[in-house]
Structure formats: structure tokens, C-alpha cells
Automatic annotation (TrEMBL):
<dbReference type="Pfam" id="PF01565">
    <property type="entry name" value="FAD_binding_4"/>
</dbReference>
<dbReference type="InterPro" id="IPR012951">
    <property type="entry name" value="BBE"/>
</dbReference>
<comment type="similarity">
    <text>Belongs to the oxygen-dependent FAD-linked oxidoreductase family.</text>
</comment>
<keyword id="KW-0732">Signal</keyword>
<dbReference type="InterPro" id="IPR016166">
    <property type="entry name" value="FAD-bd_PCMH"/>
</dbReference>
<protein>
    <submittedName>
        <fullName>FAD-binding domain-containing protein</fullName>
    </submittedName>
</protein>
<dbReference type="InterPro" id="IPR036318">
    <property type="entry name" value="FAD-bd_PCMH-like_sf"/>
</dbReference>
<dbReference type="GO" id="GO:0071949">
    <property type="term" value="F:FAD binding"/>
</dbReference>
<keyword id="KW-0560">Oxidoreductase</keyword>
<dbReference type="GO" id="GO:0016491">
    <property type="term" value="F:oxidoreductase activity"/>
</dbReference>
<dbReference type="InterPro" id="IPR050432">
    <property type="entry name" value="FAD-linked_Oxidoreductases_BP"/>
</dbReference>
<dbReference type="Pfam" id="PF08031">
    <property type="entry name" value="BBE"/>
</dbReference>
<dbReference type="InterPro" id="IPR016169">
    <property type="entry name" value="FAD-bd_PCMH_sub2"/>
</dbReference>
<dbReference type="InterPro" id="IPR006094">
    <property type="entry name" value="Oxid_FAD_bind_N"/>
</dbReference>
<feature type="signal peptide">
    <location>
        <begin position="1"/>
        <end position="21"/>
    </location>
</feature>
<feature type="domain" description="FAD-binding PCMH-type">
    <location>
        <begin position="157"/>
        <end position="337"/>
    </location>
</feature>
Length: 645
């Protein structure tokens, strides 16, 4: 009897592999504790208190706007100094100065430095390594740009934050969140600043800068309760694509991340969904997440994975950055390295004329479905230049395909182009690994300019199934180019062929889409605010409406979208929005985290100084919602008087 029982036990323990214990980076083990707060003078403890332990002074967060420097309610210099002293390193609290201050009258004006900065301005590294700069300066409000690029007259902070915490530990993040929440200060998170809509900036804010959280750990065999057993990588919130791909390659694996070299993988990218050169094979980056470590709005540091905070885990995989908390690290699945073949080619209308040019483009569009069914990803642009138009494939990316197979995929197209008498000089290369292919094929992308608005649309597979559908979709794209707009597009299918897609917050429109197309409208750099608004209106409600009209019920990718996207809740999340909003209300009822067009952001708006859509102003409640929101906040504040003053 006894023998029998123990052998059953043994068999059971062999079958059920124990799941992974919580593995924290060193910087995640340095945390703020209640025990520590209890040792501080009460006045200081109040500044940094956790939400469930202490409630801010009455009415503080119930004012119409977040406090702003010089409004009389902004925390005193003394309070900021106290914050600085509690952080894990002495220089972690930064009072930012825009880089281009060297170009304007003032104490640090320096013509030589200004020239160097101007020469380097469009290089994205110039901005990523800075605590406040963002890659879409239009949404910072265009103050303090190098004058030969955009003369802003003087150098003010504009949409940049008032203070930045260069976060090096979980402690720093907890202190920042608690301080901002308790003192009515707007909070923003900047990782790399790649966000298309300026979500990583904000005037009069305290910014948590996650860029330096760079740790990476590899697991040979990660065991997750969701059923996954296999290689995995845990990476810090500040890890960028070039660093993650290198680390993966060092261990002979690949991970699903973006094409851009400098994008911050574990910040806005993965939380917003994340498309990848591997998406037609492995889905969206968010589909591959096993767990997040996160500091929530209360200041608590916790895990969101398949067994812990499951609702938060669901929301963080596609629900968008800057909304539910500050993620400190993410664990993702990894897959074996594979060979990749990539191709690039281009042609333009100069010698062949527009009709042949468009016939060549059309021959490619006609095969979108066939190509992605072979797990390929292609990245192409169609750019007008005066009377001419250029098509550039850069690159066509065929993961796990040999030169021969990839050549078979493309040869029919090249034959068609030859038949159309369109000269091309294609380059086809087989790489031994994804890492080599990615490094060689994707150039460093520049910072975006000071006079363009971008928008995007997901085009469903069904649009390309019939000739009528292809005519209509192709017509809409062609019309935009003929109207002078560039198209930057991706042919991919991030629907998992094998095993189905995990249930998460990724925009359902991605699942049946095979084209993600981005376009932009430029305006004259000297345009008045009114002219810019008019140009934007005709872009958002004119051109982009034509794309919406041919893709009814679909949506747009929130990470590469128009800041003025109408009906963004449906567009970015479709039928998942209601559930996301419920999770937001539950984890962040006081809107400690706010970003434009983020889940639950409806009640607030940035009142910019120039009336343009940007971060250059106070964050205030939308007037109609004040009374209800305020009473909701008061109701929440009342029942928790823990400390007696
Ligand atoms: C050149 C370029 C190439 C790109 N390539 C791709 C691509 O291949 N695939 C793709 O899907 N997208 C791509 N994007 C879009 C990209 O996904 C978004 O710009 C994304 O927001 C970048 O995230 P980030 O953290 O680097 O940027 P940031 O601008 O720093 O942050 C973006 C948002 O996430 C929030 N956030 C950042 N870190 C955290 C955190 N730790 N916790 C919580 N919230 C956080 C910020 O507050 C902000 O709201 C590209 C963008 C650019 C400019
Ligand atoms: C708090 O708000 C209530 C209602 O608006 C007001 O009557 C009260 O005077 C405020 N208290 C403080 C300290 O501002
Ligand atoms: C760009 O910046 C680098 C330092 O990051 C500097 O060495 C270089 O001179 C700058 N380039 C130009 C053209 O000034
Ligand atoms: C900066 O210039 C703008 C526009 O000319 C002006 O409105 C603003 O008052 C100036 N700010 C400062 C601090 O001089
Ligand atoms: C999920 O998170 C909890 C809490 O950190 C942890 O105990 C558990 O092991 C995690 N599960 C997996 C599979 O990692
Ligand atoms: C890659 O190709 C090999 C050989 O054709 C195949 O066995 C393997 O399943 C492929 N991997 C993926 C992820 O498709
Ligand atoms: C891929 O697209 C090209 C260009 O349209 C086409 O010629 C080719 O047939 C497609 N591949 C497959 C497998 O259909
Ligand atoms: C598609 O467009 C072509 C060229 O304009 C036209 O000849 C063809 O009849 C159209 N097909 C359908 C089904 O509308
Ligand atoms: C587009 O039209 C809608 C509805 O008329 C309007 O609310 C919105 O402000 C317009 N968008 C822009 C950018 O003008
Ligand atoms: C909201 O109301 C306040 C006064 O209560 C006013 O100053 C502000 O301009 C209004 N904001 C908008 C966007 O109408
Ligand atoms: C290798 C491979 O998957 N080839 C497929 C490419 O797509 C065409 C059309 O869908 C299929 O017929 C091939 O089998």
C-alpha cells in the first residue's frame, strides 16, 4: 500500500514541473517599504506614502487641473529636494534643460555646440539618450528646437517635464509615483521617446525615465503556468531592440520585437501590441509575453502573469503604455535562431511614366495574401517627389526561408515587372541568422520632422480577396500618394497560424489585417496655428476618412497613429475597450497615469498654450466631466483616514 502510494506521488511530481519562481533583477529588489516610511518624520512620510496607507490632503487631487509650476500649489523646492534625497542615487532627480538651449540667448548659449547639435539633430540617438527629448517634436510644442530647423524665438520647456527621475531602481519609481499622486503633480513616463503622439512628454510633469533599466536574463527552460515550457528572456524596461536582439543572438534564440533599432521593446512597444519582422510567424510581441513586473498607481510593486493579477496581465498585452502602471521588466518567449532571406528593390516613375509605375505597384498588392501565408513581412514606401513617384521595398523579409524558397516567392513578381518593362535591380541575400538579417536590412530611422502629422490604418485580408476589393483598396492608397502624401506600409499577418492567438488586449483589427499603412500630411513650416489646424482637419477627416471608408469596422495601430484619431477607443481596441476601461478604473481610479488617447483618458485634456494638439500646457479635467469625476474622487477619499494629524 505504502509503496504504491509513494510511486504515484513520484510519477505525479515527474509530470508536473514546478513553475518558475519570481525572478527579480537587482534593481527590482531595491524597494520602498512601509517600515522605511515609518522611520521618516511625518511630513516626509506624507510625501511618499503609499495610496492605501495614507490619503493626500483633502481636495488636492480634486482640483480641475494638475498643479503647475508657479500656480501656488506646486510642491515647494524643499519638497522636491526631499524627493531627490530619497532616490537611490544622488543625481537621479534632474531639472531638465532642453538640449537646444545652447542655441538661444541665455547662460549656456554656445555657437559651436549649437552647430554640432544641429548637425546631429535628426539622428535618433541624440534624443533617446536625453532625459526629456522626444522623437515627434511637433507634440512637444516645438519650443527650443535648433533655430535653423525650427526657430521657436526663445527656449522654454514647452511640453517637456519640469522634473525627471532617472530611475535606476523600483524604489525610485515608487517614490516618483507616490510623490506625484500625493501632491497633485502630473506624472509621465519616458522610455525612448519614440511615441508618435508625444505620450512620453508633458508640461508641468514629473517624468519617470526608464531608459537606464537595461538588465537582461536568459532562461534556458522557463516553466509557465499557462502551459509554456521553453526558452525565455527577461529584459528591463529600458532595453532597446538592438540590445535585446544581440542578447537573444548570444544565446542562439530570437524574440519578437520591432524593426526599428532604437525602439524601447518593453515599454510602449510591447504594451501597445508591437509588430515585428517575425509577426507573420509568431504574432504580435504582446502575444509572446509571459509576465510583467510593475509598479501600480498605489505605489505597490507586483507581478502580472498568467496566475497573478490576471486582468492586469491581459490589459498590459496590447492596452497601451503609460496607462496601468510603470512596467519595470518583461519576460517573453524565445525561439530557436533561424536563417532569413531578405530582398530589396525599387523603381520610380521618372522614365517609365505613372501608368506603368502604378501597374508595377498593383502587381505586388495583388499578392499580399499569398506572401504573408508564407510567413513573410514586407516593409515598403511609396513616396511622391514633385511629379514623380518612387516605390521602395526595404526589405522583403522571409524568416526561416532559404535563398531558393524566397526566390521562388518573388520571381513571379520580378518577371511581371520585366514584362511591364520596369527595370529593377533586386538584391536578394540569405543570412544565417535573424540577427544578421535584421542588422543588415533595417537602417537607423531618423527623428521625425517639425511639420508633419501622421495617421495609419489596418487593412483587412478580405479587402484583398476579390478584384473589386483590391481595386478599391489600391485606389485609396494611390489617391493619397497622388495628393502628395508618403505611404509607409507593412504587409504582414500577425495572426498565429498554429495554436491560435492568446486572449489579450491586442487590437482585434490586427488579427485579420494584412496591411498596416501609415501616411502623413506635411504643412509649411511657417504656417500659423490656424493653418496647421486646418491642414490637420483635412488630413484626419479628409484623407484618413477615405481609408476608413474602405476598411469599415477595422482600426488603427495605437502606437503609430494620428493624435487626433476620431473614435479612438473603437479604432485602437475594438470590442475590447469596455473591459480595458474596467481594468483601468480598478487599478487607477484617480488617473495617476494619463496619456493622450490612452484607455480611460477621456476625462482629461492638455490645454495647450497655442491651441494645437500637443503637450505644451496644463493637464486639466474636461469641463463637462468635472462635477462627476470630482464627486467620484471625494467618495473614494473619504473612508480611509489612517494617519491622524
Ligand atoms: C523609428 C521608429 C520605428 C518604430 N518601429 C516599430 C516597429 O517595428 N513595430 C512597432 O510595433 N512599432 C514601432 N514603432 C512605434 C513604437 O512601438 C512606439 O513608438 C512605442 O510607443 C515606443 O515605445 P517606447 O517605450 O520606446 O517609447 P516612449 O515614447 O518612451 O513611450 C511610449 C509610451 O509608453 C509609455 N511607457 C514607456 N515605458 C513604459 C513603462 N516601462 N511602463 C509603462 N509605460 C511605459 C510612455 O509613457 C508612452 O506613453 C516605431 C517608432 C519609431 C519612431
Ligand atoms: C474642499 O472642497 C469642498 C467642496 O468643494 C470645499 O467646501 C472645501 O472648502 C474645500 N476644502 C479645502 C481645504 O480647500
Ligand atoms: C555629433 O555628435 C557627436 C557626439 O555624440 C560629435 O562627436 C560629432 O561631432 C557630432 N557631429 C557633428 C557633425 O557635429
Ligand atoms: C517665448 O516666445 C513666445 C512666442 O514668441 C512668447 O509667447 C513667450 O512669451 C516667450 N517666452 C519667454 C519666456 O520669453
Ligand atoms: C507569477 O507571479 C507570481 C508572483 O510573483 C509568482 O509567484 C509565480 O511564480 C509567477 N508565475 C510564473 C509562471 O512565473
Ligand atoms: C523552419 O524551417 C524548418 C525547415 O523547413 C522547419 O522544420 C521549422 O518548423 C520551421 N520553423 C518555423 C518556426 O516555421
Ligand atoms: C509574393 O508576391 C509577389 C509579388 O506580387 C508575387 O509575384 C508572388 O507570387 C507572391 N508569392 C506567392 C507565394 O504568392
Ligand atoms: C478593377 O479595375 C480595373 C482597372 O481599372 C478594371 O479594368 C476592372 O474591371 C476592375 N474590376 C472590378 C471587378 O471592378
Ligand atoms: C473631425 O470631425 C469630427 C466630427 O465632425 C470632429 O469632432 C473632429 O474634431 C474633426 N477632427 C479634426 C482633426 O478636425
Ligand atoms: C474650462 O473652464 C474653465 C473655467 O472654469 C476655463 O478657464 C477653461 O478655459 C475651460 N476649458 C475649456 C477647454 O473650455
Ligand atoms: C513554402 C510555402 O509555405 N509556400 C506556400 C506559399 O504560398 C502559396 C500560396 O498561398 C502556397 O501555395 C505555398 O505552399
Amino acid at each position: 500500500m505504502t509503496l504504491f502510494a509513494s510511486s504515484v506521488l513520484l510519477a505525479a511530481s515527474l509530470l508536473s514541473v514546478p513553475s518558475q519562481a519570481r525572478t527579480l533583477f537587482k534593481y527590482e529588489r531595491i524597494q520602498l517599504t512601509q517600515e522605511y516610511l515609518d522611520t521618516l518624520p511625518q511630513e516626509d512620510a506624507q510625501l511618499f506614502a503609499f495610496e492605501d496607507k495614507f490619503v493626500a490632503a483633502p481636495n488636492k487631487t480634486a482640483t480641475r487641473c494638475r498643479y503647475f509650476p508657479d500656480d501656488g500649489k506646486w510642491p515647494s523646492d524643499k519638497a522636491w529636494t526631499k524627493l531627490g534625497k530619497q532616490l537611490s542615487s544622488v543625481d537621479a532627480l534632474i531639472k531638465p534643460v532642453p538640449q537646444a538651449a545652447v542655441c538661444y540667448p541665455g547662460p549656456i548659449q554656445d555657437d559651436v555646440k549649437c552647430k554640432q547639435l544641429t548637425a546631429n539633430w535628426t539622428n535618433s540617438y541624440t534624443h533617446i539618450s536625453d532625459p526629456t527629448e522626444i522623437l515627434s517634436p511637433v507634440y512637444q510644442g516645438l519650443t527650443c528646437q535648433p533655430p535653423t530647423i525650427y526657430n521657436s524665438g526663445n527656449c522654454t520647456l514647452g511640453g517637456y517635464p519640469s522634473y525627471v527621475i532617472n530611475a535606476k531602481t523600483v524604489l525610485d519609481i515608487q517614490l516618483g509615483i507616490n510623490f506625484a499622486r500625493n501632491d497633485g503633480v502630473r506624472l509621465v513616463i519616458k522610455n525612448t521617446g519614440h511615441d508618435f503622439a508625444g505620450k512620453s512628454a508633458g508640461a508641468g510633469s514629473l517624468s519617470l525615465w526608464t531608459h537606464n533599466l537595461k538588465d537582461i536574463t536568459f532562461f534556458d527552460k522557463y516553466v509557465d503556468d499557462s502551459g509554456y515550457t521553453g526558452p525565455a528572456i527577461k529584459a528591463g524596461a529600458g532595453v532597446q531592440a538592438f540590445e535585446l536582439y544581440k542578447a537573444a543572438s548570444d544565446h542562439g534564440v530570437v524574440v519578437v520585437a520591432g524593426e526599428g533599432q532604437t525602439v524601447g521593446v518593453m515599454g510602449g512597444y510591447i504594451q501597445g501590441g508591437g509588430h515585428s519582422p517575425l509577426s507573420s510567424l509568431y504574432g504580435m510581441a504582446a502575444d509572446n509575453v509571459l509576465g510583467f513586473e510593475i509598479v501600480t498607481a498605489t505605489g505597490e510593486f507586483t507581478t502580472a502573469n498568467s496566475t497573478n493579477n490576471q486582468d492586469l496581465f491581459w490589459a498590459l498585452r496590447g492596452g497601451g503604455g503609460g496607462t496601468f502602471g510603470v512596467v519595470t521588466s518583461v519576460t517573453v518567449k524565445a525561439y530557436p535562431e533561424m536563417p532569413v532571406t531578405a530582398a530589396s528593390w525599387s523603381f520610380d516613375s521618372t522614365k517609365i511614366g505613372k501608368d506603368r509605375f502604378w501597374a508595377g505597384v498593383r502587381a505586388y498588392v495583388d499578392h499580399f495574401i499569398d506572401n504573408v501565408s508564407n510567413s513573410t513581412y514586407s516593409y515598403f514606401t511609396i513616396s511622391p517627389n514633385g511629379n514623380d513617384v518612387t516605390f521602395r521595398m526595404q526589405p522583403f523579409f522571409a524568416p526561416n526561408k532559404t535563398l531558393n524558397t524566397a526566390s521562388n516567392l518573388l520571381q513571379p513578381h520580378w518577371t511581371t515587372l520585366t514584362r511591364l518593362n520596369i527595370p529593377i535591380n533586386p538584391k536578394l541575400t540569405q543570412y544565417k541568422s535573424f540577427y544578421d538579417a535584421w542588422q543588415a536590412e533595417f537602417p537607423l530611422e531618423p527623428q521625425s520632422d517639425v511639420q508633419t502629422a501622421f495617421g495609419s490604418r489596418l487593412f483587412p485580408r478580405s479587402n484583398f480577396e476579390s478584384e473589386t476589393g483590391r481595386n478599391i483598396s489600391f485606389g485609396a492608397l494611390k489617391d493619397s500618394v497622388n495628393a502628395g502624401q508618403i505611404i509607409i506600409a507593412f504587409n504582414m499577418a500577425p495572426a498565429l497560424a498554429r495554436g491560435g492567438n492568446p486572449d489579450n488586449a491586442v487590437n482585434p483589427a490586427w488579427r485579420n489585417s494584412i496591411l498596416h499603412a501609415i501616411t502623413g500630411r506635411r504643412w509649411d513650416v511657417k504656417s500659423s496655428a490656424n493653418d496647421i489646424l486646418a491642414a490637420r482637419k483635412s488630413f484626419t477627416n479628409g484623407t484618413m476618412q477615405k481609408w476608413r471608408d474602405v476598411t469599415p469596422g477595422s482600426g488603427s495601430y495605437l502606437n503609430e497613429a494620428d493624435r487626433l484619431e476620431p473614435n479612438w477607443q473603437q479604432s485602437f481596441w475594438g470590442n475590447k475597450y469596455a473591459k480595458l476601461l474596467g481594468i483601468k478604473r480598478n487599478y487607477d481610479p484617480k488617473d495617476v497615469f494619463w496619456a493622450v488617447n490612452a484607455v480611460g483618458s477621456e476625462g482629461w485634456t492638455v490645454e495647450s498654450f497655442d491651441g494645437l494638439p500637443n503637450e505644451n500646457g496644463r493637464l486639466c479635467m474636461v469641463n463637462e466631466t468635472i462635477s462627476t469625476t470630482t464627486s467620484r474622487m471625494r467618495a473614494m477619499e473619504e473612508p480611509t483616514p489612517v494617519m491622524v494629524v
